[in-house]
Design brief:
This protein is α+β, with helices and mostly antiparallel strands. It has 16 helices and 21 strands.
Amino acid sequence: MTVALQAVSSAPHGSDANSRAERVMVLWVPDWPVHALRGTLRDAEAHTAPLALVANHRIVACCSRAREAGVRAGMRERDAQAVCPALELHPHDPDRDARSFAPVIGALEEVVAGVEARRPGLAALRARGPARYYGGEEPAAQAILGTLRALGFSDARIGISDGLFAAEQAARATGTTGTAGATSVTSVPVGTARAFLAPLPITRAASGPLAATLQGLGIHTLGAFATLPEDAVRQRFGGEGLTVHRRATAAGPQHGSEVRPRTPQRDFAVEAEFEPPIDASATLAEAAESTVSRFFAALAETTLICTGLRLELTDDLGIRHERTWSHPTRFTREDVLDRVQWQAESGTLGGTGPSEERGGAGIAKLRITPTHTDRAHEAGLWGAEPDERVRHHLRGIQVSRGRDSIGTAALRGGRLSADRQQFAPWGSAAPAATRPAGLPWPGAAPAPSLVFSPPLPAALVDAAGSPVRVDSEDLFEEAPARLSVRPPDAAAETPLSPSALPRAAAVASWSAPWPLRERWWAGAPPRVRLQVVLETGDAWLLIHDTGRWFAEGKYD
């Protein structure tokens, strides 16, 4: 089959000047996930242990020391630890990779224009503009590498060639010394990209299934695939095969340009440093007022509103506490100050007093970064937001009684009544209802009008005063006769007054018990649910758990 395919080809395709791709410069920082991880580690410069990042129990990326020990991307986690017992494993976080690469793109745009971030650690740009500005492709590449070395990426590499794919392969073909000179830049001369790509394996350009098919036909290199006629490739392998063929022949795109530079966006992030560090959440909120004002002033200049932001609190020990907040409409200055205080109280400072238990002196740095912005718009004719007086009073309650004191709720999937409630504090994005429309949750009881969280202790007894028990067949051993419900303790607050709770009230009727068995393989005990109606007319939802009865809810 190999001989027949090669015999069909009579002349190389895609080698004329009209089909030649434009010159492209590709920047590659090897092991970018490792760089992103080191940026979050304390004493990263002193950290010399071999590192690897794991997803789905397989190695995603590893450092040079781990590679020297035999660790490779794609290797199973257990095999990697076998070849390198000192290997430190960390979970891979794609969002962290993207966040860490964004400042690098911003720094590159200060040196050259038209940068496209292909993925974290890989960027591309058209070579013509930088070459004309710096007097050649090599000087332009060295200017970019100088910027990257100033940021601490001494192992960055650059490939220059005809076409995006060939330029990326050139970047990956550079040396690994990371020093200035030819080892950090590989430039493929104009018109020779096809010859440069010819010896590379077909797996560089084709996906797994297509590469396996081509290898089965005896096509193992890009050069062998490039000799096939383009029409024959289209008819036999479709659009995917045509894309791989154009890569192998270093042909330019049929329409437009391969490089799509991003539109530089303004960085609205603001930060402030505190000296001495602040050890009280209320004081931190007061100190952040000017920083928050600068944040909203920058947004106002571009008529933007903020509906999501990320707060980063860094203490004097270098530990960063990060959290993302959202808002259903838009953040105000007071909203952001509240969240600074809430985030500090939720674990960073642990309250309003000094933080001796944490081992540090307090917060030394605050950074606010918008994650979601929108164009400012006027409210509708009758208003589209809650009355400002309502917002003011609700915010006052949250300030005095805590963020979770007021909120909105939505239904979600779950068998227990308390599990079906999804709560979101006021000022956060409303929870999305996950309950299938019009369909009950399998095993769920009819929703009571009043749900107790946690369930209230109850006593369900028979006529002799003995507790009602459930046998192995999920049936009552005795008929229910009386029900008593009491608060968990004397100081506990319940939606009902103690006088409204039944005390040895007679049971008029009851439903058949239905079992609830979840996670039995993990040793979770079975539970049984029951509905009872008292002689007073009240209806209760009960649950039998670990030999005891509890009141889960009450029906009106």
